[in-house]
Design brief:
It is a single chain. Helices cover 72% and strands 0% of the residues. The protein contains five helices and no strands.
Length: 177
């Protein structure tokens, strides 16, 4: 599962079954948490030091931040950038396995970006209007995300589908001892 993900990092053709896709998502969460938890604690400690000192930023505080949180944050961002293309190819292969077009991924990303732009643009409005737009965009985001996860949970189309033939044919032989 892990090695298959990295071997197929540019393969937009073919299929990825649910086990391959969700197995990688499990490892993705583990890797992100390995970087995110220490980074979060480092940033929290840095911010609490600033609050406790009440003297603002000093050179010593900046050195503390640079030696603790910044390297971890750079590793997290670096890992995210490195895993972006392989993750996109895995999403496409999973959608193809469920006999769905990769256009669903494009639609999901487009809607997410549009909602982010709307959210940023509406932050300059008065408080009530900004709250209405923020809650509306959050609701639309959640609904689209649920719909996309549903597509990723669909069972594999075992026979030939409209995108690619099945990677493996169902086994008809039985093992005998």
């Amino acid at each position: 599962m892990f090695l298959s993900f990295w071997r197929n990092y540019t393969n937009f053709r073919g299929r990825a079954n649910r086990l391959e896709f969700w197995g990688w998502q499990f490892w993705q969460i583990i890797f992100i948490l390995i970087f995110l938890i220490p980074t979060t604690y480092s940033i929290r400690d840095f911010l609490s030091t600033i609050d406790a000192g009440k003297s603002g930023l000093s050179f010593g505080l900046l050195v503390t931040a640079a030696t603790s949180a910044l390297p971890l944050l750079i590793l997290l961002i670096g890992y995210t950038i490195i895993a972006l293309l392989p993750s996109l190819t895995l999403f496409v292969r999973r959608l193809h396995d469920a006999n769905r077009s990769a256009g669903w991924l494009g639609l999901n990303v487009t809607v997410d970006l549009l909602l982010l732009i709307i959210y940023v643009l509406t932050r300059q409005l008065n408080t009530d209007a900004a709250l209405i737009f923020a809650s509306t965009t959050a609701t639309i985001f959640v609904l689209f995300s649920i719909g996309f996860v549903y597509l990723l949970l669909l069972p594999s189309v075992i026979d030939h589908n409209r995108f690619f033939p099945a990677n493996t044919a169902p086994s008809t032989t039985t093992l005998s001892l």
